[in-house]
Amino acid sequence: MSVAIVTGCSGLIGSEAVKFFHAKGFQVVGIDNNMREYFFGKDGSVDWNTKRLKKTLPNFTHYAADIRNEKDINRIFRRYGKNVSVVIHAAAQPSHDWAAKEPLTDFTVNAAGTLIMLEAVRQFCPDAPFIFTSTNKVYGDTPNRLPLVETATRWEIDETHSFFARGIDETMSIDDSKHSVFGASKVAADVMTQEYGRYFGIKTGVFRGGCLTGPAHSGAELHGFLAYLVKCAVYEKHYTIFGYKGKQVRDNIHSNDLVSAFWHFYQNPKAGAVYNIGGSRHSNCSMLEAIEIVETAAGKKLSYSLSDKAREGDHIWYVSDVQKFQTDYPEWKYEHGLTDTINEMVAATQEKLREESKQTAIVPSGWFGKQKPLSPAVAVRSLMHDYGKQNVLGVGVNAVDYEAALKHIFAAAREKRPLAVSALAVHGVMTGALDAVQRHRLNNLELVVPDGQPVRWAMKWLHGIDLPDRVYGPTLTLKVCERAARENLSVYLYGSQPEILDKLETNLLRQFPALKIAGKQPSRFRQLTADEQIEIAKEIRASGASIVLVGLGCPRQETWVFENRDLLPLPLLAVGAAFDFHAGTVPQAPEWMQQRGLEWFFRLTREPLRLWRRYVYLNPLFLLMLFLQMTKLRTKSLDETVVPPTQLRFG
Question: Do residue 313 and residue 453 come from a single domain?
């Protein structure tokens, strides 16, 4: 397996590169020692992202090494040697203001660290392309000497200037300007990377980024203006704009679009290449314009003030001309616009706030305990019945109703981001309760809804949360199709048999004439090869689907959504028997049996040979383990899991 080495693997660009190349079938080696926490404090920590990558990506290996430590870096490169196919160097000290506090640290990280990485490539994997995330700050304050015009909401370049149409290109000089200490250290790294290309023949690509942003950005006041702006809006913190009346203009490129550019370079690398890369005229805004978009997305006003003092070396107007890169790599294109990017960031930050609120919330103590009040954050969510994940036999089940589940699903669909969803009855919960590997998969799904009445009752008995109803997979399927038709979003059907898919499609379209079914694909009823897995994901992406409904049966479907969530940036819903029910090939239990938790008995009478063990053995064991958790005689934590050693690739 080809190896990709990514430094700064838990930061914005590094983590995006890790997920992207992992999805392409690479073994990814990440290097990150969380120096962002040293630079920016707790707000800047990327430890949460490191943990997420390690949990969700089976072919990812993390090293907490310092890129300034030549011995440690060489040890890593020596281990993988010429199996290394590409190196993406995204680690850096990224702040103007911080660099001025510790110039020596800034220079050793940005310049010396880059040199150590370049030399490791030259010694151990000289054929591997080296991709360097440089910065537009290598141009210093030269952009501020352009003829700029002040408008109501932004500074703009005079329309007669050659940079007006597309932005600033690579012909701008990096000499005779004030760079800031940070800019100077990046110039050194930038030029050295070029030199290793021109002098030693290493395939090096220098990407001089504008504002790099995205939902994984750990924004802090000193770095990551858009991410920090979003954080202030969502968390209701005060925001300070430094200088230029808030009209300074930045071009913003989504991290996924930048990493896509890396991929194109990797496929046809050049030695000593230099590219300006950013949002260009496609995606740019002033601070004031960004605030307006963020306020709309967050649904609340931002508290902010203007400071007359601008940051040293800060740009008044900067828009990247990406024409050189597009000429060399004409197949590359933007996938994310400014508003879409901000909406995605707001949604991700809101989700992070919910997770933090959930961790600090005081929830009811249980069946035998006295009811305790919920925290304000949870009380607000309770209006829609969304109490976050609750521990049921070591499996995290979201205490949500239909409306809350639909809110999560359609937010992800509109924002084109991954969301792995499953509806679990007793059998599904028990697959995780009895198997630490499957428990890891389930506990890393973003949304697990209580499909069975006993699971809903368990949350009441264990945690005092009395939901109005379960979130039944077949009913959720119909609600998803109904709303998708209303919002003009398409669905994809994956799993089951061809004849069942045909009947399912016919019945869904009869019930929802406006529904768009982007495609359908039956199960192959075997383990897929890695190439087949990637090809199926490619077909689903190419269909333009907004949501995938997966009917492979439990636990195969939960494994499928877990293993494919990083390949498919859209909601994946494991709904199982819904395919058979809505195709009309298998009858559902009468409503009175469903309400009394007796659906299992109805299904057992219909398929005794297939289902007897599931219900006769697992149902009593579920009750026993529930009793042990309720009495605190035996409780599994949500972290008691085992990372899957390999992908099963059910198909």
Answer: no
Distance, in Å, from the CA atom of 324 to the CA atom of 276, rounded to the nearest integer, reads: 8
- Residue 575 contacts by C-beta under 8 Å, 6 or more apart in sequence? 423, 473, 474, 476, 477, 549, 550, 551, 557
Q: 145 and 282 share a domain?
A: yes
Q: Which of 202, 61, 18, 193 is nearest to 128 (CA)?
A: 202
Of 347, 376, 410, the residue at which a domain comes to its end is 347
Residue 485 has phi, psi (to 5 degrees) of -65, -40
DSSP 321: -
Dist. CA 293–CA 282, nearest whole Å? 16
The angle at the Cα of 362, spanning 360 to 366, to the nearest 5 degrees, equals: 140
Rounded Cα distance between 545 and 517, Å, is: 8
| Total residues found in the chain within this entry | 651
Rounded to two decimals, the pTM is 0.57
Give me the CATH number covering residue 75: 3.40.50.720
The number of distinct structural domains making up the chain is: 2
Q: Please enumerate in sequence order all residues whose Cβ is within 8 A of that of 126, keeping only pairs 6 or more positions apart, or say none.
A: 200, 201, 202
What are the tens digits of pLDDT across the range 445-496?
Answer: 999 999 989 999 999 999 888 888 899 999 999 999 999 999 999 999 999 9
Q: Phi and psi (nearest 5°) for 286?
A: -85, 170
Residue 257 amino acid letter? D
341: Cα separation from own chain's centroid:
12
Q: Please tell me whether residues 301 and 443 are part of one structural domain.
A: no
Does 539 lie in the same domain as 404? yes
- Show the DSSP H helices in 253-400 as ranges: 255-267, 287-298, 323-328, 338-360, 376-381
* Residue ranges making up the domain that contains 419: 390-630
The backbone torsions φ and ψ at residue 102, rounded to the nearest 5 degrees and listed phi first, read -135, 75
pLDDT tens string 167-225: 999 999 999 999 899 999 999 999 999 999 999 999 999 999 988 988 866 655 656 67
The SS3 assignment for 626 reads helix
| pLDDT tens-digit map of 141-165 | 999 999 999 999 999 999 999 999 9
- DSSP state, 202? -
